[in-house]
Amino acid sequence: MHGLTGIFDNQGVPLEKQEFSWKEIASKPISKLDDDAFTRVRVILMNGIEQDALRLKHIGARMNKSLRLPLAQVRRVEQHQMTSINWLLSSDHSPLETTVAYEQVAIEVTAAVAQNEPDPYQAQTYRFGLLEDFDHLYRYSAMLDRLEGKDANNILQGYTDIIPARPTSEHHRAPESDLRDNYEKDSAALITKIHAAMITAAEYQTHDYYMNIGPLFADPVARQLYAEIASVEEQHVTQYGSLMDPDESFLEKWLIHEAMEVYNYEACAKQEDNPRIKAMWERFLDYELGHLNLVCDLFKQYERRDPAEILGGSVPAMIEFKSQREFVRKVVAEEVNLRTSGSNYVQKQEESPLSLAYRTQMNTPIIPSNIASAGYEWRPGTELAEKKS
Questions:
Q1: 15, 77 contact by CB (below 8 A)
Q2: Rounded Cα–Cα distance for residues 273 and 307 (Å)
Q3: Which of 232, 284, 286, 296 has the greatest count of CB atoms below 10 A from its CB?
Q4: Residue 7: predicted pLDDT
């Protein structure tokens, strides 16, 4: 265990010195083949976190006139951080390959968070969600094989299994059974607050990506598959977002979000193998420390409270960006039949009748995720090893 205050002792780069040029923002992308898959995992995760930073600050500005200028100033920098990160994805990734990469992020990062989370109920929620993203990966991998004749493992690089889990067709729940019990702001550990903000951000990005690219496919099954899974991703955003305490003030949420950004850039910088990308993580870590210190000052000014009330205490070791295969296999074996009834986790036979009715209605007359994966079983090098009829 170590205190996050050790990270926060650094004042970072002052906001007025955080500058960009178009050449920096649109720099050379990573390589699909030569860079490690976890470099791309970090790229996609941090893009989603910066996207959520913008979202939170735009919503906050609608409700806080006195904060509009500092929100706009920090947002401008985070817009350029987000662009710098997102533009690292190379053009040789097809939209379906990028989708497979998004699901790898959801599985590996959520699995790491689930093992790092001290609150048993919140950890259960992360395990529940990762099983569904794990099945989404299987469905999209089947689609990639069908449409492009490609093996999804070229993207996954052997870190993540491609097998079914809780079937996507059974993810569709009534809204009442997607809401979760929230942490209590005055008693929850800081890492619990960081995890909830982090995974909500990651899932929000996935939802938006699927909504944007889904209509661009000509294949009718692909269009239906993206529509189906985008709906589940909205459920996931609902689920993870409801883990946060709604009684936190806006400035409290902003402070937690900046701490979460610092936490993740620190983890990225320590584990990145690509020197150029590592330098970007280190630079943006310094920028986020500058943002965090600015928000600490605003927190003192407007709430007359010490930021240490929120940022104090200790957290587990940094999230590890590595294959979580064995943990995921264990969760699949033990929890694939878990369902929800209200905010409770229950066995399959105890699932909410409202969810069963909703699912029956949505799954009639077709279930795109079942059609997409019909007859599909992943084997290495399918596009090379099998003759396509």
A1: yes
A2: 34
A3: 284
A4: 64
- Can you tell me the distance from the alpha carbon of 233 to that of 235, in angstroms, rounded to the nearest whole number? 5
Greatest C-alpha distance within the chain:
70
Residue appearing with tokens 């995921």: 328
CA distance 64 to 157: 46
pTM: 0.96
For residue 269, the one-letter residue type is: A
Question: Do 177 and 352 contact (CB within 8 A), yes or no?
Answer: yes
Confidence (pLDDT) at 315: 75
If you search the block for the tokens 């951080």, which residue do you land on?
81
Give the chain as a 3 state SS string.
CEECHHHHCCCCCCHHHCCCCHHHHCCCCCCCCCCCHHHHHHHHHHHHHHHHHHHHHHHHHHHCHHHHHHHHHHHHHHHHHHHHHHCCCCCCCCHHHHHHHHHHHHHHHHHHHHHHCCCHHHHHHHHHHHHHHHHHHHHHHHHHHHHHCCCCHHHHCCCCCCCCCCCHHHCCCCHHHCCCCCCCCCCCCHHHHHHHHHHHHHHHHHHHHHHHHHHHCCCHHHHHHHHHHHHHHHHHHHHHHCCCCCCCCHHHHHHHHHHHHHHHHHHHHHHCCCHHHHHHHHHHHHHHHHHHHHHHHHHHHHHCCCCHHHHCCEECCCCCCCCCHHHHHHHHHHHCCEEEECCEEEEHHHCCHHHHHHHHHHCCCCCHHHHHCCCCCCCCCHHHHCCCC
Cα dihedral 41/43/48/49 (nearest 10): 100
Pick from 197, 199, 234: nearest CA to 214: 234
**What's the CA gap between 232 and 21, in Å, rounded?**
38
Find the length of the chain.
Answer: 389
Token pair 């990145």: residue: 272
Angstrom distance (rounded) from CA 52 to CA 136: 22
Would you list the domain boundaries of the chain? 6-16+32-368
Instruction: State how far the Cα of 346 lies from the Cα of 175, in Å rounded to an integer.
Output: 16
Mean pLDDT in consecutive groups of 10 residues from the start of the chain, 389 residues:
56 94 96 95 98 98 97 98 97 96 98 97 98 98 96 96 97 98 96 97 98 98 98 98 98 97 96 97 97 96 95 83 97 98 98 98 97 89 53
